[in-house]
Structure formats: C-alpha cells, structure tokens
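Notes from hallway chat w/ T.B., transcribed later so I don't forget. T.B. wanted the structure written out for a chain they're using in a teaching module, and asked if we could keep both sequence and structure tokens in one place. Agreed to drop them here.
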Amino acid sequence: MASLLYAEAPRPRGALKNLPEPFLSSRSRQWNGVAVELYRVRDVDTVRHEAEHVVAIVLRGPVDLHQRRNGRAFRKTMQAGDIVIAPVGEPRALRHEQEAEVAKVLLAPSLVANVLECMFPTRSGQIELLDDFGIRDSQIEDIVRKLVGELRADGPGSRLCAESLATELAVHLVRQHSTATRINEDSPRMLPRYKLQRVTDYIQNNLREELTLENISQTLSMSPFHFAHAFRQAVGLPPHRYVVNCRIDRAKSLLRNTDLSVTEIAHQVGYASQSHFSVAFHKVTGQTPRRYRREA
C-alpha cells in the first residue's frame, strides 16, 4: 500500500517521548561515513533533526507510524521490510504507539556528496535525495540487513565491509531515490592494469593489518567511491569480498605448508581471534581450518 498523505489530527498535550538509546550501535567503531543503530521502541512521540541522511527499515512490526515533515503529514502501518528515507534537512515529527524493532543507517552528507561528484561531476550540486516514506526496495533492504550483520558480528573486516556497503547504498539512493534522471555517461572507468597490480600487491602485503576502503584507495590517490566502483569493474568483486578471499587463500597455503597453529594462522591473515577466523574460513570453504588441514 502506498504512503498516505493525510490531514494530521492534533496531538494531545504533554511532553514528547524521545527515542531511547539504541541497544546496539557502531558509533564507537570508527566506520567512515556511516553509522548503524538498532532500536527497540514503543510509545514514541518526538521531533528528530538528524545531521546525517537516514535510511530506516522496520525489522519487526507492524507499527502504525505517523510522520510530519516540510508541512506534510504521512501515516502508514509499517510492516517488516518497509523503509523510510529522510535526507538531511527539516526536522521530522514521529509518532507511534506499538512496539517495533528498527535499524537505522546514517550516511554522512560528505559520503553522498562524494558519490554525487563522481557520478555527476558537472551538476552534483543540483541533485538531492528524496524523502520517501513507507516504501519497499529489495536492494536497500539487502544492504541494510548486511550492515546489521556486520554490526552484530563486529569481526575482522567489518569496517571495510561496512564502508563498502555504505558506498553501495549511497550509489543506489542517488540512482533510484534522488532528483537525478540518469547516470552520468562519464562514470569512472576500469582500473588500468598497473594500478590494479599496485593495489592488489598492497592488499597481499598487508593482510594481517586492518584494511579499510579509505587506506586501500589512498594507494591510488582515489576517492573511496571512485576506487570501489572501478575495482569492482576490474575484478568482478567489491573490495571487501576480495580481501576476504585473499585472507582465506593465504590461510589455506599456511595450513597446507606450515606447522603453525590455527590461532597463529588466524593472526597472520588479519583475524583477531581463532573463532572469527574459523567462521570466515567455513563460510568461504565449507570446512573448518582443522578439517581442511587434515584433508589437504
């Protein structure tokens, strides 16, 4: 059912009931350009003025949500998977009574501005994200749920993965939920072979370190967005997935050819603990590290 524009009834007098603190947040993890927060909320009546672009998705509902912004009021019974996109700008008045679980992704205006500059270098300042209320978008839902997964896991590579997903989300918002009508024909081209070799060498030489989209892209003096787009064109994988595959390939070699313990191998390939390493290894190979070593 489409969002409903309606004449809002007057709200009863009384103090606003602010949103509680999120029960899980990435704010302390130093992710560049993106934060993810999880909320369990009920009986909310508040006014929000965010400094970041907000993409919120209902994880558990239903919830009868009222929103007022820019002189317009909306109401919809939100089901799991329904999405609200609220660009930076006017405050939003929110009200609902039922209990709900909500994931919020907050994108830094600078990240979206960089994406716009790369996609539309001659008219980036003319393009704005749209207010969308109660929409369905399977790609946004998939990206947000992956970001929530990185928030919950908090494992090695989570920062790199989160920053890559944030860039992917920003690109999708510009393409599908902005005033842009088409993608710039002069979008970033594929990486030349020598630049690709430079960046893959950097990754291979630093597998035991924390690799972020920012420090990888700096090896080519490119913006994180431009780099991520060009790298995926050249390799067929986003940077974070390529890094995971490199780590697992290095681990396979060490398991086959050395007597190092599984814990030491985990540290050699950039995992802070054996448990995180084992989960990642099993996800890629379908085997535990010890079983792989026995059968190699």
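Follow-up for T.B.: Confidence is low (pLDDT under 50) at residues 1-16, 182-188. Might be a good example for the class.
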